[in-house]
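Board notes, transcribed. Complex of a protein with pyridoxal-5'-phosphate.
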Amino acid sequence: MNCAEQLVQIFGSQAEVARAFRLDRAVVNNWVKSGYVPARWAMEVERVTDGKVAAVEILNEAATKKPVKVKSRADDFGADNGSHTMNSFAPSKRISSFHPPQRTLMGPGPTEIHPRVLTTMSQPAIGYLDPVFVDMMEELKSLLRYVYQTKNALTFPASGPGSVGMEYCFVNMVAPGDKVIVCRNGVFGGRMIENVERAGGVAVVVEAPWGEPIDPNLLEDAIKANRDARIVAFVHAETSTGVQSDAKTLVALAHQYDMLTIVDAVTSLSGTPVLVDEWNIDAIYSGSQKCLSCTPGLSPVSFSERVVEHVKARKDKIHSWFMDMNLLLGYWGATTRTYHHTAPTNSLFGLHEALLLIREEGLEDCWARHYRHHVALKAGVEAMGLEFLVKEAYRLPQMNAIKIPEVLQPKEAAIRKQLLNDFNLEIGAGLGPLAGKIWRIGIMGYSARPENVMLCLSALGSALDDVGFPVHVGDAEAAAHGAYAQMHAKAAQAKQKKKAA
Ligand SMILES: Cc1ncc(COP(=O)(O)O)c(C=O)c1O
């Protein structure tokens, strides 16, 4: 029985197959008549049939029925068909162009990408030393200074994900033997410790329980006990728990003892205030794929003059050629540019557009949007009887950690799978000690939209109802609508007051 016939058997009739795949009946009839299902349907068939018809079966059958037509004119050019030799290295399965499904991304990142950013990224490539590109780089740096709220000259996107930004800071600032105080209250503080040790430094760790912010008193104790340490490092927004630490206080404390600071703003930048100059942050890095809502793979960094001096004063050679700040300055720092590495041009076009979108919206409005949708989500989540992991005072609006009730914990992965399969909705799982205990719902960047919040509440409510958790379908949505209505009324009142004044 071929795959098309199998589908008819599974669903009962051609009409039911058409309904399951939301297709015209004529299309299904054509599958049956031609005796195969086109390869592009492979993944969808596997999903809709719950694996009863495997994607690979569709692909193999389609490859036999309708082999790929190679357009090369080998014969005309006298090739002696060496293709057999070449083909022995070819993939064993037939590969078609990749078409990802349309998902709603509400995990801890990456987020959905604004259509304007995607369109910009698909523009023709130009060289990374093209004068037009160089002008764009200058704009990009000025837009980054805006979102970071800094005048730091050395502000640019490092080529690579957030982890590269992190490593960039440690590799440049930590010499072998240096002592660094690292605050850890989740996964990413742990990565900072790794970075210190790999740079040959010694990490002194200030711990806080997962789900709590860093306690400034504990940091001060550690500083007093380690007066030879030169750097304090911490994560502003801990993505693994949804906690925000008080960056302003922690940085001020470090400066009181004449220390430099490294701040991770991967999840905080543009979702919640990050004021580099006002808070006197020395080195900071972020990621393009969170609240900046760009494609993953770029890490905006910013360094104060103090850091530049500190790095220049190092007697030893920086242990990474690629990340050596002194070398990279020739490309990102100066106005006359020299080759350092091939910059990811189209990704940078995208970041330029993503930052422009924030500039057009206004940074404060961007923070406010993240908060507004958090309030609506919170109203809905609480109406379902679920609780937040993190206390309101230091909860991140863009990264919501929701406690999974004990009865649901054995089913948590199945629930996430159902959200993905039935609603095309991705939410995140817990990490480390919180694995299986929390869900992480991100409302970041372009994903911070009312339709996403409402879909998330409906989908989660439906999945919980399916597993017998006592939720009243519709209550969460009503609570979220109520929260939105209250916020809109308040905003309208404030606008009127402003107008009258
Ligand atoms: C707080 C934090 N720091 C660092 C990283 C690492 O970023 P990337 O995955 O882009 O390398 C992440 C990623 O989620 C993060 O959330």
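The chain has a mean pLDDT of 93. DSSP finds 20 helices and 14 strands in the chain.
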